[in-house]
Amino acid sequence: MAGGGEKKEHLYKILVIGELGTGKTSIIKRYVHQFFSQHYRATIGVDFALKVLNWDADTLIRLQLWDIAGQERFGNMTRVYYKEAVGAFVVFDVTRASTFDAVVKWKGDLDNKVQLTDGSPVPCVLLANKCDQAKEGLVNNVTQMDEFCKEKGFMGWYETSAKENINIDEAARFLVTKILEKDMANKLGEENRDQDRFKINPTEDSKPDKKFTCC
């Protein structure tokens, strides 16, 4: 790269999942292309888009956003789609409470099919989409939504609107921050494990002295 040292580069795969018609494709298009349309066809199977972030002076992040069709939830292919993901958005539509009811199933499916290298769940953020419209259900109660996320293992939640470009960038930045934290912690853990492997067996000298006190 011209001028300065090499930038660290990360490639992260992020899943965007949730019921049919919740606005997953619209969120991705808004985030990646700053574009909104009312007329997307339902995603069939899977689609993905790439977003490049100059995270800071030393770090370049490429996000692969996987747009997984709502009707795919219980399909056998989702395990393949989820493979190697390090983060996820679960999306529901605030105008349809039924799409919120399905959120727990999506989160359960995600946790069942993909984990980080240390065996922990991938960081996941809940998106309450179409917040520019009239809201139904629990999303009207911020405290209860916070509790729900804590209880169900979401890192947090955001009210979003792809149409009005509300909180899309903020939610993505929050998720990427959590992914980076996990990534750094895991790499540190791996380095420590590697160091432990190379430690030679303790010699007689290094064993603790057995000292007895006589009264």
Characterize the structure shown.
The protein has 215 residues and is an alpha/beta fold. It has a six-stranded mixed β-sheet with strand order 2-3-1-4-5-6, sandwiched between helices. Helix content is 34%, strand content 23%. Residues 202-215 have low confidence and may be disordered. The protein has helices at residues 24-33, 78-82, 97-101, 103-113, 142-152, 168-198; strands spanning 8-18, 46-56, 59-68, 87-93, 124-129, 156-160. It starts with 7 loop residues before the first strand and ends in a 17-residue tail after the last helix.
What topology does this entry show?
Blueprint: E1 8-18, H1 24-33, E2 46-56, E3 59-68, H2 78-82, E4 87-93, H3 97-101, H4 103-113, E5 124-129, H5 142-152, E6 156-160, H6 168-198
Parallel strand pairs: 1-3, 1-4, 4-5, 5-6
Antiparallel strand pairs: 2-3
Descriptive tags:
single chain; 215 residues; alpha/beta; six-stranded mixed β-sheet; 6 helices; globular
In short:
It comes from Lymnaea stagnalis. The protein has 215 residues and is α/β, with parallel strands linked by helices.
